[in-house]
Structure to design on (671 residues):
């Protein structure tokens, strides 16, 4: 167990180093210059040079990188060139929104897909199975930016069930209306996950139910429901777990299409904004933060694998 | 062999209901396949007494596994047609509802499966796999069931059972897993255990140990056992009676000692001849039965064995021989138009004969 954690930690440090280098140099390849945005009409050569010196952008790239990473290691993620807000503050106000969206959408996705996959796998090619397989196939083909427009049109504009774009309320301010505004984006993010989880789990369950140990379980007189939950579900959930890891990782700062369309100030929203403004420090630091979160999620998923299937050694 | 015959004469009958434990009458099990109807079991009848051990032997595809699963009513229902009757302790298995079957499975009838590597759930601890049927059928609480699981593992000869109950199947060897399977099957002291090729996938040395454990527990609990095997050597020393199956039918059934003294079916003789013997000099080619087992979708006309039988006559190719009793022994039945003259056949069995 300790060896497992230790080895992962070493790998984690290596990965994060590579990501920090990548994030830093990639953003400096972007065309544009933050000074243009900052100076606006005062953009004279003297002002520009003074500002470049002030921001440390006149130094060679490798020196800029070392300065940045040295600050990051000391817990200082820097300041936005544009808004002068500290990046830690941006992250600490934006990341909880992503986290909430991820938790809501994943709970709904698992809550739908697991019972549906079980019911379908019980009678493969039955009516329910065919209906849900076809529906999930259709859902897979709908991109989230179409879905969100349709749902906003239907639920916000016509039915007035959920508030429309731009009505985001922070959770600390009013939890109830916050949840109310977050349900629509969570549903949009849920749809993609649900269809994938359903299809993977259904296929694996059908395969597991053919196994000898299921016949043995039946020969003990156990009920079908007990066999399904106690004997079939766990050995069938490895691909589900793997894809949940990928999905959740993808949603960290990856929900920006939904956030952008509904004007929810999540991490993806902030990141896209910073990129547009060529706000080097914000982009670098947010990217590094996202990378840390994704690596941690995968670390947890790897650990869960060993819990679900004891044959996967932790060494 | 002597042990088995003594047992068949001496085993005590002290049961509530007299009469056989299991009565199978004209059982037919048919699967619908893309090629047509497959008659896996084609009109099988026999009785099984309490405490008796019946061996069922035959080649692959002779219908012996389907027969044992039919008795248990454990076959998948889609594309399945069954007729005839299977009466177990007065309950008609073929018409029993799933709920009734579930009260019998594990409690009154249980099964030891062929491959211990795939028969145990890889993600469930050994202990739980034993206790779940105990808790379901006997109403034991968790502590009692756990204690029982440890005692069962001791009885099937697993060292340090207190630690083993916490193990997962992949931490055990094949032989150990089959012992666990026996512990699972015997947990609730069933009246009938169906052992379907219980030792086929194990080393020869382990085979004898597993069969010994099964025989010992059977004796202690006065259970009936149906031992299915393709290996006459395995069933010869451990059964009271043997039924030989071919093409989904029983072609010869007799008390074990009688069968080896006076086998009547040429097929039985061919099976015996193809069993390896210790008395043979080494590097002698094994006698194989010519031809292939019959296609269960298109059984040959007449006796199903006739195309491979060197004694076959025209009658054999056109008319199915009925299963009839031997003239000198009513418990010896065979289905053959040209039975062999009674000549005793010596058989030196492979596993277990020295160990028992």
């Amino acid at each position: 167990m300790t060896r497992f954690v230790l080895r992962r930690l070493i790998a984690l440090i290596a990965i994060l180093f590579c990501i920090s280098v990548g994030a830093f140099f990639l953003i400096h390849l972007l065309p544009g210059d933050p000074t243009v945005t900052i100076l606006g009409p005062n953009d004279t050569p003297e002002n520009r040079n003074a500002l470049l010196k002030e921001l440390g952008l006149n130094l060679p790239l490798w020196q800029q990188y070392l300065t940045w990473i040295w600050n990051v290691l000391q817990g200082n993620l820097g300041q936005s060139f544009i808004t002068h807000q500290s990046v830690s503050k941006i992250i600490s106000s934006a990341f909880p929104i992503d986290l909430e969206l991820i938790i809501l959408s994943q709970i709904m996705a698992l809550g739908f897909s697991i019972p549906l996959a079980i019911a379908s796998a019980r009678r493969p090619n039955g009516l329910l199975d065919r209906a849900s397989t076809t529906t999930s196939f259709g859902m897979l083909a709908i991109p989230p930016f179409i879905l969100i427009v349709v749902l906003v049109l239907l639920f916000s504009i016509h039915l007035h069930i959920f508030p429309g774009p731009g009505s985001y309320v922070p959770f600390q301010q009013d939890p109830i209306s916050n949840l109310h505004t977050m349900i629509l984006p969570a549903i949009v993010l849920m749809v993609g996950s649900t269809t994938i989880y359903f299809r993977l789990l259904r296929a694996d369950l059908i395969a597991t139910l053919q196994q000898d140990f299921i016949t043995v379980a039946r020969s003990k007189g156990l009920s079908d429901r007990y066999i399904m939950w106690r004997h079939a579900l766990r050995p069938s959930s490895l691909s589900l777990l793997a894809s949940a890891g990928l999905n959740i990782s993808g949603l960290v700062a990856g929900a920006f299409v939904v956030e952008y369309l509904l004007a929810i100030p999540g991490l993806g929203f902030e990141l896209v904004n910073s990129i547009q403004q060529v706000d080097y420090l914000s982009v670098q630091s947010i990217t590094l933060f996202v990378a840390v979160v994704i690596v941690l999620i995968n670390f947890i998923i790897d650990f869960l694998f060993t819990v679900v299937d004891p044959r996967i050694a932790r060494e | 062999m002597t042990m088995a015959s003594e047992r068949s004469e001496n085993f005590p009958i002290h049961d509530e209901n007299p009469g056989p434990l299991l009565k199978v009458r004209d059982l037919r099990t048919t699967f619908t396949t893309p090629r047509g109807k497959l008659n896996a079991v084609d009109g099988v009848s026999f009785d099984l007494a309490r405490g008796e051990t019946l061996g069922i032997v035959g080649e692959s595809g002779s219908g012996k596994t389907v027969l044992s699963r039919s008795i248990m009513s454990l076959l998948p229902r889609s594309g399945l047609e069954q007729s005839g009757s299977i009466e177990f302790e007065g309950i008609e298995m073929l018409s029993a509802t799933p709920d009734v079957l579930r009260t019998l499975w594990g409690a009154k009838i249980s099964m030891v499966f062929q491959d211990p590597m795939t028969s145990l759930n890889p993600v469930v601890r050994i202990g739980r796999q034993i206790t779940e049927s105990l808790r379901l059928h006997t109403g034991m609480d968790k502590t009692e069931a756990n204690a029982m699981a440890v005692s069962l593992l001791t009885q099937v000869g697993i060292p340090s059972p207190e630690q083993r109950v916490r193990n997962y199947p992949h931490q055990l060897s094949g032989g150990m897993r089959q012992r666990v399977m026996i512990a699972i099957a015997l947990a609730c002291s069933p009246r009938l255990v169906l052992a379907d090729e219980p030792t086929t996938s194990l080393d020869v040395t382990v085979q004898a140990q597993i069969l010994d454990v099964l025989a010992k527990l059977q004796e202690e609990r006065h259970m009936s056992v149906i031992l299915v095997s393709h290996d006459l050597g395995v069933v010869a020393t451990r059964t009271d009676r043997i039924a030989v199956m071919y093409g989904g039918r029983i072609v010869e059934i007799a008390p074990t000692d009688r069968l080896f003294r006076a086998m009547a079916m040429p097929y039985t003789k061919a099976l015996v001849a193809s069993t390896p013997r210790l008395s043979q000099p080494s590097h002698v080619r094994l006698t194989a039965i010519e031809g292939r087992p019959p296609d269960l979708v298109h059984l040959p006309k007449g006796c199903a064995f006739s195309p491979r039988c060197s004694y076959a006559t025209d009658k054999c190719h056109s008319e199915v021989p009925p299963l009839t009793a031997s003239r000198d022994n009513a418990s010896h039945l065979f289905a053959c138009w040209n039975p062999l003259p009674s000549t005793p056949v010596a058989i030196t069995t492979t596993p277990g004969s020295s160990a028992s």
Residues 2-73 of chain A form one domain. Chain A touches chain B through 21 residues (CB under 8 Å).
